TrEMBL record:
Location(s), subcellular: Cytoplasm
Enzyme class at the top of the EC tree: ligase
GO biological process, one term: arginyl-tRNA aminoacylation
UniProt domain DALR anticodon binding: residue ranges: 604-701
Organism: Variovorax paradoxus B4
GO-annotated cellular components: cytosol
Gene it is expressed from: glyS
Protein name stated in the entry: Glycine--tRNA ligase beta subunit
GO molecular function: arginine-tRNA ligase activity; ATP binding; glycine-tRNA ligase activity
Pfam families registered for this protein in UniProt: DALR_1, tRNA_synt_2f
Main location group: cytoplasm
Length: 712
């Protein structure tokens, strides 16, 4: 650096920012500022960045920022020597014109550098570019940071001053901006943004700031002055940590081993809503605890941003925590106000719960016929019928009559809670309320659990359904969605997947594999597709063949994420295995085989055999010992007669690893065969016999996986 380095602070003071986007906005604003200043040579790559974000400000503090960037040498290609200089070495008009555009003249010609550029020699003009001043560089960086903010929705507003037409000139930003601070050490950097001129004044807490405005002494005093004078914890992370600390302390104060509900998204959102957090303990009437706790927790979190308190058994208590943005000496009014606000919400939940239980789930199934599922696939009632048939078929394949009865009943009732008042108000409770209402109707716990669990797994890492009936209904529900959507051409594209088909496919994969279900993928898809035969325009090919490709592609991605190589995954999935529950064992066998010394040679030989057989459509697996002439082919045939039956027996017993390891004994006879035998002999019977030998070998080697995929 060529100038004194000081720390830099930049702050935009704005109206309340969207809370769910605040963290990203703060990180993006600070990150782009830093990257731009580093790119211009005004900051060092090692400069320490601190991002600040509160409901009414975005700010960044950056260490070791220079007043001016260092000058840098610039080498500019002008033109080929043959174009720039004539036969006598004098500059051509073209060269003089180019130099003039760069602010130079003929006196610069002797100093031009010659260097090869590709196949021709070119002329280069070397000069020194003045480093940018901080004011210039920060102006550019600030504009870039504002332009690149991940703003969920831009708003336009008129500027009241500092513009060409006050009251008429407008700018666009996430929220109206009212202040700009830019301090390099204790010096204001003269930059502008959003119609604002930089200064050193900002504003603290709307109600509790000790002074207004807060006049910042220097860049380093920002966080401390904001806290002491402005009553604001400017750092998002520091504010979040403080809220978590206060929540834990308040729970201890309540006693009874209570803990606040753990919800990172809620904690982030509340952190984005307050500048000076103050956690208060509130309560509600115990009678509301008769309502399922999921309902009460959801309404407190989603509607009021409260933190419910749970006891040692993870049951909801009648206490909850509020994160207030003010800290009055007497907080009773704040506590009382929040208790009054939550009471009608809880009363609504209790009313919905009481009303819903007046009708059984079974009586609501008919109403699903009036609820549109998809304009091409009919109503929810028609969908339920399809899911019922698919579920019954799966259960029957598993050979359990009791399971079939439970799964069919659960599938019939699984969507009935969609027409209840509670789920109408809180769609997130679908399935959960179905379970409560099923138990109220006297249904078995297995059926009730299946009604709730048929949406699982809902996301990566989510639990699978807890009982087999739930597994069957969840499989049926996801297969119905996948087959239906693929059949009408409603496929995911790019980032768009409105029907969560990728998630459904991964759910099907997880259930088939983790429960090791003896179900063939193609048969499942065919049976599901049969339920759509009355749908106009339904394409069974897309619903089976393309969908199977889609599911196997999702499986391949999942296996690679778990550490398998692309070659290993290709080897296992290329034969399109139907029992997905076998895939982990097949993959383990391939990975163990790949580690053997003989693996590379056998994989290469397998690939070579495959290429030979592709060019020999007349071949079949018949081998006549009478036609075996060369010692190498006799030796290979003898080795196969001993090794292949043993490998097949292990394969049939499900020991895929040992099966492949047994085949590794064929390496030497295979190598010798290719070294000493002409496969495409002129004599037809010899050629066909040798091709038959290779075909038998190829089939034996590829029962577990396509080993040729392991070849480099």
């Amino acid at each position: 650096m060529t100038s004194v380095q000081k720390n830099l602070l930049v702050e935009l003071f704005v109206e309340e920012l969207p809370p769910k986007a605040l963290r990203k906005l703060g990180d993006a604003f600070a990150g782009v500022l830093r990257d731009q200043l580093v790119a211009q040579g005004l900051a060092e790559p090692a400069s320490v960045l601190t991002a600040y974000a509160s409901p009414r400000r975005l700010a960044a503090h950056l260490t070791h920022v220079a007043e001016r960037a260092a000058d840098r040498a610039v080498s500019q290609k002008l033109m080929p020597v043959a174009v720039g200089l004539d036969a006598s070495g004098q500059p051509t008009p073209a060269l003089l014109k180019r130099l003039g555009a760069l602010g130079a003249d003929a006196s610069a010609v002797p100093g031009l550098k010659r260097a090869m550029d590709g196949k021709a020699e070119a002329l280069f003009y070397e000069s020194t570019a003045k480093g940018a001043t901080l004011a210039e560089g920060l102006q550019k960086a600030l504009a870039e940071a504002i332009a690149k903010l991940p703003i969920p929705k831009v708003m336009s507003y008129q500027l009241e001053s500092g513009s060409e037409l006050p009251g008429w000139s407008s700018v666009s930003f996430v929220r109206p901006a009212h202040g700009l601070v830019a301090l390099h050490g204790d010096t204001v950097v003269p930059v502008e943004a959003l119609g604002l001129h930089a200064g050193r004044e900002t504003h603290g807490h709307r109600f509790e700031a000790a002074v207004d405005p807060v006049v910042l002494r220097d860049a380093n005093s920002y966080a401390l002055q904001m806290q002491d004078e402005g009553a604001v914890i400017a750092s998002f992370e520091a504010r979040r940590t403080e809220i978590a600390r206060q929540l834990a302390a308040a729970a201890v104060q309540v006693g009874g081993a209570t803990v606040p509900i753990q919800d990172d998204a809620l904690l982030d959102e509340v952190t984005a809503l307050v500048e000076r957090p103050n956690v208060l303990v509130c309560s509600f009437e115990r009678e509301f605890l008769e309502v399922p706790q999921e309902c009460l927790i959801l309404t407190m979190k989603a509607n009021q941003k409260y933190f419910p308190l749970l006891d040692a058994s993870n049951r909801l208590t009648n206490k909850f925590l509020v994160v207030s943005n003010i800290s009055p000496e007497d907080a009773s009014a704040v506590v009382g106000g929040n208790e009054r606000v939550v009471r009608p919400r809880l009363a609504d939940a209790k009313f919905f719960f009481d009303q819903d239980r007046k009708k059984s789930l079974a009586s609501r199934v008919e109403s699903l016929g009036k609820v549109v599922y998809h304009n091409k696939l009919g109503t929810q009632g028609e969908r339920v019928e399809r899911v019922m048939h698919i579920a019954r078929g799966i259960a029957e394949k598993l050979g359990d009559a009791t399971l079939a009865a439970h799964a069919t009943q659960a599938a019939q009732l699984a969507k009935a809670d969609l027409v209840t008042d509670m789920v109408g108000e809180f769609p997130e409770l679908q399935g959960t309320m179905g379970r409560y209402y099923a138990l109220h109707d006297g249904l078995s716990a297995e059926v009730a659990d299946a009604i709730e669990d048929h949406y699982k797994p809902r996301f990566a890492g989510d639990d699978l359904p807890r009982h087999m009936a739930g597994i069957v209904v969840a499989l049926a529900d996801k297969l119905e969605t996948l087959v239906g959507m693929f059949g009408i051409g409603n496929l995911p594209t790019g980032d768009r997947d409105p029907f969560a088909l990728r998630r459904h496919a991964l759910g099907v994969i997880r259930m088939l594999i983790e429960k090791d279900l003896p179900l063939g993928l193609d048969a499942l898809l065919q049976d599901a597709a049969a339920q759509f035969k009355e749908i106009d325009g339904f394409d069974s090919g897309k619903a089976t063949v393309e969908l199977q490709d889609f599911i196997l592609d999702r499986l391949a991605g999942s296996l690679r994420e778990q550490g398998a190589s692309a070659q290993e995954v290709d080897a296992v999935l290329a034969p399109r295995p139907q029992r997905l529950g076998e895939v982990p064992k097949l993959l383990a066998a391939v990975r163990a085989f790949a580690a053997l010394p003989a693996a590379a040679a056998l994989a290469a030989a397998n690939k070579r055999i495959g290429n030979i057989l592709k060019k020999a459509p007349e071949a079949d697996a018949h081998v006549s010992e009478l036609l075996l002439q060369e010692p190498a082919e006799k030796a290979l045939h003898a080795a196969m007669a001993e090794v292949v039956p043993a490998a097949n027996a292990l394969f049939d017993a499900g020991d895929y690893t040992a099966s492949l390891q047994t085949l590794a004994a064929l390496r030497e006879p295979v190598d010798a065969f290719f070294d000493g035998v002409m496969v495409n002999a002129e004599q037809a019977d010899l050629r066909l016999n040798r091709l038959g030998l290779l075909m038998s070998l190829h089939a034996a080697m590829n029962r577990v996986a396509q080993l040729e995929r392991l070849a480099a």
